[in-house]
């Protein structure tokens, strides 16, 4: 099933997007986190039908919200690095996107540094192709790798998502300076800055004062089913 976590405009406080997050509710074991079943699905090839299902489900849900009168927002989905390793796999994803008539600005694809490292050349071609379709590209979990700055130069990113590890340590002066430098760099490159893992009002206030564009985290809402997102829409629009 898909859960959704809202993304909040840090100036207006409005919901401007949601990230679709897959959850597996096993009848015997209950909810199994993606960190446990996604690696297995990549090894076995099941990641392909899973990715196809997530894309279809997420876009369908977004359009269902719009049919109920809620304003248009951006839907963010995560793509596994496995998608970039085989041309046929990526072609399958593109075929789905084309069949759903994705409008510019409607969909955001999030990829991690680890994902693009798997097949950098292919990732570059694939991400450029997605961008040509009007899809926004986000670097997810920025700051968890070693070569992120280089990827910002060579890959067509629109959005920079700062990892929660940065956000949790903003009381550290050195970490604060690094954060401010990253935001300044991102904005100079024309990127939108999203902070992940916001949990306290102090973190939120710091991020607002330091030019963060969009926030995401338990301070605003944990990932919730679609009907819970509708309640947030009613409060925020």
From TrEMBL:
Signal peptide: none annotated. It holds the Pfam family EAL. One of its GO terms (molecular function) is cyclic-guanylate-specific phosphodiesterase activity. PROSITE patterns: EAL. InterPro entries: Cyclic-di-GMP_PDE-like (IPR050706), EAL_dom (IPR001633), EAL_sf (IPR035919). Residues 1-237 form the EAL domain. This is Putative signaling protein.
């Amino acid at each position: 099933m898909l859960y959704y976590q809202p993304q909040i405009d840090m100036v207006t406080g409005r919901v401007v997007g949601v990230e679709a997050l897959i959850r597996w509710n096993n009848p015997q074991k209950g909810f199994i986190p993606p960190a446990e079943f996604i690696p297995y699905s990549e090894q076995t090839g099941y990641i392909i039908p899973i990715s196809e299902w997530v894309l279809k489900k997420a876009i369908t849900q977004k359009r269902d919200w719009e049919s109920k009168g809620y304003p248009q927002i951006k839907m963010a989905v995560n793509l596994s690095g496995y998608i970039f390793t085989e041309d046929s796999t990526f072609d399958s994803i593109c075929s789905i996107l084309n069949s759903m008539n994705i409008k510019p600005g409607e969909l955001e694809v999030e990829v991690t540094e680890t994902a693009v490292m798997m097949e950098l050349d292919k990732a570059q071609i694939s991400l450029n192709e997605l961008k040509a379709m009007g899809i926004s590209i986000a670097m997810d979990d920025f700051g968890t790798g070693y070569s992120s700055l280089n990827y910002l130069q060579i890959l067509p990113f629109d959005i920079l998502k700062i990892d929660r590890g940065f956000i949790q340590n903003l009381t550290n002066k050195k970490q604060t300076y690094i954060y401010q430098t990253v935001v300044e760099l991102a904005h100079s490159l024309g990127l939108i800055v999203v902070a992940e893992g916001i949990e306290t009002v102090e973190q939120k206030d710091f991020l607002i004062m330091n030019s963060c564009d969009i926030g995401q985290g338990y301070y605003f809402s944990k990932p919730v089913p679609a009907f819970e997102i509708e309640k947030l829409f009613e409060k925020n629009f």
